[in-house]
Amino acid sequence: MKLNGYICADMETIIxxxxxxxxxxxxxxxxxxxxxxxxxxxGTLIALFGFQLLARLLGLHFDDLRFSSSLFFKGIPFAxxxxxxxxxxxxxxxxxxxxNCDWKHFYVVFTVPVIRFFFLIFPDLKASFGVNxxxxxxxxxxxxxxxxxISHLGFYLVATYxxxxxxxxxxxxxxxxxxxxxxxxxxxxxxxLFLIGTILAIVTLVYSRLxxxxxxxxxKYISAILFTVFSxxxxxxxxxxxxxxxxxxxxxxxxTKEKPKYERSGLKEEEADNYVKKLLDxxxxxKAFLRNDLTIEDISTELDISRHYLTEILxxxxxxxxxNFVNEYRIKEFKEELFHPDNKNLTISAIAFKCGxxxxxxxxxxxxKIEGITPSEFRNKSYS
Length: 384
Known about the structure:
There is one protein chain. Helices cover 67% and strands 0% of the residues. The protein is mainly α.
């Protein structure tokens, strides 16, 4: 009991911190300019974390409100997955409206409170579903509820992961530069941790109720920490995140499929060969790769070749995506510039930027991928 007393005191402090964090962050993200639907979705997610913390605060001080919080808050965990999925989906496209298909993802969120209200209207059915008088789930109902949350969240996190994978594939067929500010790697990382944290909290809940046969406050303590930490984590990165569609990086359906998409292409073999020659001459003579913000749209405009055809010839004729195609030219240029007398006082990074790279990390990664060694090792090896 004394331990639970200490935990309750600490948990209340954590809850107040988490509430302040979630309220402030959700408002800040929703007000971020330019106003995007993706930011509103993330702001809603963080606000729901706050509601979950509020439910735990009510449970600490008002036992008679336990059912009301259960009724209105039990469906909230089923909103986390859809909100994360739609956040990534809207962030990486120019679709900034909630369509009917988007709203369907939230059916479960409203179904859970309706079912619990149904138990209130028809109390005789509670026993058959393993629900006791204070509407706390025990037995098989608890296991079902826990499994439903984990599987539902897991399903949407997989869908989110696949959407990010499509984006990462598309980005390399769209631009030639490193886009650190719109990189979605942070979403994957935090999502993994969020799923693990959710499983940990639910396993603790099931153990305390079904095995230890007691309502251990530790479960709520863990969940309070998780909601506070993830409220901070998501808000920190989401506030810095820029809208991807503003950079013309659209997840176009025709560009996220596999190579069979070209089987019905209207591009003839002779015409494709001509486009390849125009593209290679353009890169060799004009040295377009020296522009550190070069995109496939730029080349499409310059050569009067559709973006779709450019992507096709790169993938099928040159076996490259746009990102690798351009950066291979930059690496070749770097190797020539590295030993030029005019560059003897320049650092490796300075020469790389001169050759079209806009990020030291992307340059290092691409150089090692092509040459098998780091730029420093290449220079030392060449001088030896």
